Amino acid sequence: MTVNPTLLRELPADLHRDRLPRHVAVIMDGNGRWAKQRGLPRIMGHRRGVDTLKDILRCCKDWGIQALTAYAFSTENWGRPTEEVDFLMTLFERVLRQELREMMEEDVQIRFVGNLNALPKSLQLEIERSMQQTQQNRGIQFTVATNYGGRQEILQACRAIATKVQQGLLQPEEIDEALFEHHLYTAGGDLDLMIRTSGEMRISNFLLWQVAYAELYVTDTLWPDFNRTEFHRALSTFQQRDRRFGKL
Residue 3 has what pLDDT? Predict the structure, then answer.
């Protein structure tokens, strides 16, 4: 995860450590627009976006945030131009191969969630290898949502539960929130903060169940420009929120 030196290595003094979000999710939007603004091909935006993600992951670890979930590729992204999709699949695979040793050194536990069976076989192998080798790491939990859709996640959980009921392994009255969450792709505890870059005011089928009481933060900054200063601003806003969870 080698990146250029950045400022803000230590938790900024105006942030309260005991009020940091435990679990942050990012919708990394704006790579293509970032590249277009500079007269570059879209793939250059994706490459720069990977560097941004690596630094935000390290920032989370530096500042004491326990879990980061990144929306890397949605079920709807298959509708993009074939050459862009192919590039993204190759990029995911290459980054995993290149960064695995450093993730081990940084004590990062990486997980992938989504319909992984639809991905190229070579990428599936790299995903499996990276998850196996980092599963004992405890520095930070890094979840990558790949070929992921929130509606699809909920549907597969419903099917799995319905199958158990049909087989007599589960009674309908036993179904509660904890059981339902157990059948979702995701882990890492409740989501506290969801960040979306590029100014779009939607969550785009991402973590629909988990976002129920998360704080939302939207910035006009495009993802490749989302640095530690921007992340600091998001966390400052989070700490100013009054999180009542429906109570007075």
Answer: 39
The catalytic residue among 29, 55, 147, 192 is 29
Q: Is 77 a catalytic residue?
A: yes
Active-site choice (62, 77, 137, 225): 77
Of 106, 167, 172, 168, whose CA–CA distance to 142 is shortest?
106
pLDDT tens-digit readout, 110-136: 999 999 999 999 999 999 999 999 999
CA atoms within 13 A on the CB side of 15: 20
Domains and CATH numbers, the chain: 23-148+191-240 (3.40.1180.10)
Does residue 29 have an active-site annotation? yes
Which has the closest alpha carbon to 198: 14, 44, 58, 27? 27
Is there a contact between 84 and 42 (Cβ–Cβ < 8 Å)?
yes
